[in-house]
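REQUEST
  id: r-88c1
  op: predict_structure
  target: Killer toxin Kp4 domain-containing protein
  payload:
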Amino acid sequence: MSVLGVLAFFAVVTWGLVSSFFRDDNKNKVRSCGSIYGVKGDLHYGIQSCHIGGDCNTDVNTVIFQDALEKLLNTKYVAETSSGSWIIDYKDNWHACVSYENKVENQDEVTTYPECSINWCK
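RESPONSE
  id: r-88c1
  status: 200
  body:
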């Protein structure tokens, strides 16, 4: 192996070690920032928020829950389908997963709340 080859090898190894030391491993981590479940009339819903980077800012989270619930209650899909789910993308790497289910009153079966998968954020 030539001297240039040896120097190149050590340069690559050194760069790899230095860059891994300074890399922000949390930058692309997706973290679940909580979920809420509720009932409004026959509508049973679940909303889960996620943030890429893992910064669960409480104030932002509250606004996202309010917005997602408002969108859910005002969407035509609720009236047209018995259940469903969808994702809302917000700015600054926030997302909300919304799921809902229309339950007929006086059903004998045990009522279950719809929910976005607990693994959806990961």
